[in-house]
Specification:
The chain has about 270 residues and is mainly beta. Helices cover about 10% and strands about 45% of the residues. About 5% of the residues have low confidence.
Length: about 270
């Protein structure tokens, strides 16, 4: 039997112990991830996993007055940058039912209700350079009583150290055409969400996303958004600008209003873990 020196045995134990602890920490979904601090970008989902039996709540708010408005009775400053106008508001709650699986509900003030679920299939690591998750959702108009738009997608993401994360999200939405069925034959939408988040200060990020519709039903303009956000403990405060009001997958598939208008909004997220 070969016996190693005691000092070498101790050094190996410390090395592998530290490596094992680091690997275990990487697998712990409750550990804060600086490059991926939230479950969404602006409207698109991220690959961030929710720990088992933990939850998160989100408020979305999109002012309906465009930042540039030739037909408005008052100018943007008099309307306090749109804060005096109406808004489309969304309330969302998500819950981790088992490890790597979360479900949630999102309701917007136009009476659209979305149920969604997300399963983290593969984590980014030495064997695979990206994180892969599966997304399932279904929208329903008129408080889920009328038109329904089920969707299926893959979330491919990659974090770059503690500084950045990039996303590619191919998503298919069935029956995205819920308002123009009599005049437009296309009923489904295939789109690819593209997004990124960059950490510019220890608790400050800039974020952007763009969702071109590749085929199928594609009214209006492709959804695009950007924003700046501040993390404060378990809260994330985001000021954003978007060319659409959509915050559910079905709404994103239907795009934004035709034209070049942009709208101000904000998101607030609270993690309960």
């Amino acid at each position: 039997m070969i016996r190693l020196p005691a000092r070498l045995v101790g050094a190996l134990a410390i090395t592998f112990g530290v490596a094992g602890a680091a690997a275990a920490q990487d697998q712990d979904d409750a550990v804060f991830q600086p490059a991926q601090p939230d479950f969404t970008l602006v409207a698109l989902p991220t690959s961030l996993r929710l720990p088992r039996f933990k939850s998160a709540f989100r408020v979305t708010h999109r002012f309906t007055r465009p930042l540039s408005c030739d037909t408005c009775a008052t100018n943007l400053l008099e309307d306090f940058f749109g804060l005096d106008s109406g808004a489309q508001i969304g309330l969302e709650y998500r819950f981790g039912i088992v490890r790597n699986v979360e479900v949630g509900i999102h309701r917007t003030s136009d009476k659209t209700i979305e149920f969604f679920g997300q399963y983290g299939v593969v984590r980014q690591g030495a064997q695979l350079p990206v994180d892969v998750s599966v997304l399932l959702s279904i929208d329903g108009t008129n408080n889920f009583r009328d038109e329904h738009s089920p969707a299926f997608g893959l979330l491919l993401s990659r974090t770059v150290g503690d500084q950045a994360a990039v996303y590619v999200e191919p998503i298919f939405v069935h029956h995205s055409n819920v308002f123009q069925q009599a005049t437009i034959a296309d009923d489904n939408t295939f789109m690819i969400g593209l997004g990124a988040r960059l950490r510019v200060r220890p608790t400050v990020y800039i974020v952007g996303e763009f969702t071109p519709r590749v085929s199928g039903y594609e009214p209006g303009v492709n959804q695009g958004s950007f924003g700046i956000e501040k993390r404060a403990g378990g809260h994330m405060f985001q000021l954003n600008f978007s060319n659409s009001f959509g915050t559910t997958i079905g709404q994103i598939a239907r795009g934004g209003p035709s034209g070049s208008n942009w709208y101000m909004g904000f998101n607030i997220t609270r993690k309960f873990f």
